[in-house]
C-alpha cells in the first residue's frame, strides 16, 4: 500500500519519533508504515488522518502495492 505519511510528516517538520508520540505508537511503527512494510490498523489510519486533518484516502492508497 502506498502512503503519504512521510511527505506529510516532513511538511510539518516532524521527526518519526515526534509523530509516533503524537499518535501513540513507536517510532519503528511510523518507519515501517512509511517504508510500506506495515499496513496500519484501521484505528491507527484514522488517528493519522485525524492528526494530518485529512481523509484516510488522502494518506493511503490501497491499490498501490510497492512491496515485492
From TrEMBL:
Keywords: DNA-binding. InterPro entries: Cro/C1-type_HTH, Lambda_DNA-bd_dom_sf. Gene3D superfamilies: lambda repressor-like DNA-binding domains (1.10.260.40). CDD domains: HTH_XRE (cd00093). GO terms for molecular function: DNA binding. Residues 5-59 form the HTH cro/C1-type domain. PANTHER family: DNA-BIDING PHAGE PROTEIN, TRACRIPTIONAL REGULATORY PROTEIN-RELATED-RELATED. This is Helix-turn-helix domain-containing protein. It comes from Halobaculum saliterrae.
Amino acid at each position: 500500500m502506498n502512503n503519504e505519511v512521510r511527505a506529510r510528516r516532513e511538511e510539518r517538520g516532524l521527526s518519526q519519533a515526534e509523530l509516533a508520540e503524537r499518535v501513540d505508537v513507536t517510532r519503528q511503527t511510523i518507519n515501517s508504515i512509511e517504508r510500506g512494510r506495515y499496513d496500519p490498523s484501521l484505528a491507527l489510519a484514522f488517528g493519522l488522518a485525524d492528526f494530518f486533518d485529512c481523509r484516510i484516502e488522502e494518506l493511503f492508497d490501497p491499490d498501490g502495492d510497492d512491496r515485492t
